[in-house]
Amino acid sequence: MTQYKIGEIARLLGLTTQALRFYEKEGVITPEKSDSGTRYYTIGQIVQLLSFKKYRQVDFSVQEVVDHFREDDLQTLSERLSAQSASLSAQAEMLARKAQAVQDYACLVRDTQEEKERIALCTRPPLYLLRVPLDRLGEIHAAERRALTAFIEAMPATGIAFTRRQESGAHTCLRLCTSEEVARRWSLPLHMTQPLPPTRCACICRSFETYAWDDASVDDVLGRIRAAGCSPDPAQELLGLHIASETRGGTVYLSTRVYVPIL
Fold this sequence. Notes:
The chain is of the alpha+beta class. 43% of the residues lie in helices and 25% in strands. The chain is built from 8 helices and 11 strands. It has an 8-stranded antiparallel sheet, with helices on both faces. A 3-stranded antiparallel sheet has the order 1-3-2. A hairpin with a 5-residue loop joins β2 and β3.
């Protein structure tokens, strides 16, 4: 009868020797041993190991495989497989959402690069700003923490928003943000957000050194908008969406899409 050594079996079946020894330790498969201690597996055990491999391929853990072969029946296996199928379908849906988010983000980065320093008139898209400011994370309560976690896990579909008034010395508020479509796709808690309605704006894509919202940066943006023949509305806040960071010559730059409400 043909027999195979543990290393041969591991190589041929795509298993690890550690897994084979674990199955042996747990008593679900017992290879024969030579006087020198070399393990040998029979054809029947190869079939059993392929069954182990089959269950591992549907993402059962090694321990779940062991539990099944210790004492389990087809009815229980069928139920476990159905549950695993539902879990994998949920994972596939999550991966599809992430793939779409990455594709959308790639398009946003490309568009931001192409539109760099260009001023365009537009209607700022409606957004929802998470009420938790990023400068007081140590003070947030449980519900706010859960909302923050949900927004972070949905990145890059969600983004980072900078808001501040136009006057010198105004406070800058940093918060995570989302659109209604993204919130629906990722089941984000919109009740924990502040809506930011669409408004007529002049938009400019700029790279700011280290920090985008000091007085000098704001004055620069407002000066560029006025030079383009637009009148910023002083009663409304500026909004900046952080797109990406890049490092040039050892300096970090924040690529930001700035929306300036205009009269």
